[in-house]
Design brief:
This protein is mainly α. The chain has one domain. The chain is 51% helix and 5% strand. The protein has helices at residues 18-32, 44-57, 70-82, and strands at 2-3, 9-10. The chain has a two-stranded antiparallel ribbon with strand order 1-2. A hairpin with a 5-residue loop joins strand 1 and strand 2. Helix 2 (44-57) crosses helix 3. It is globular. The two termini are 20 Å apart.
Length: 83
C-alpha cells in the first residue's frame, strides 16, 4: 500500500499529490498560523504548523521542530483517520 510523505497509507495506491497538500496548506494558513508558501511541498514550515494542530487536538506530545518523526506520523495517522 502506498504512503504519503508522513507515512499515511492510501488504499488507492497513489501518494497524496501536491494539490492535496496545497489545499491543506491553505487550511493551515487560515486556521493554524502557517506562513509559508502554498506550494504543495511538505517542508519544515508545513510540518511545524501541522505539529501545532496535532498537539492541540490529536495527541501529539513531541517538540514543534518541523521533523516528521514517529510521534508526528502517529498523530497525523490519528488525524487522517479521524476526519
Amino acid at each position: 500500500m502506498a504512503q504519503d510523505v508522513l507515512g499515511v497509507h492510501r488504499s488507492d495506491r497513489r501518494p497524496a499529490g501536491t494539490g492535496s497538500w496545497k489545499a491543506f496548506q491553505r487550511c493551515l494558513k487560515a486556521n493554524w498560523g502557517y506562513t509559508g508558501a502554498i506550494d504543495g511541498k511538505v517542508g519544515s514550515g508545513t510540518v511545524k504548523t501541522l505539529q501545532r494542530l496535532l498537539k492541540h487536538s490529536w495527541g501529539y506530545t513531541g517538540q514543534i521542530d518541523g521533523e516528521a518523526g514517529k510521534g508526528t506520523k502517529a498523530a497525523f495517522r490519528r488525524f487522517a483517520n479521524g476526519i
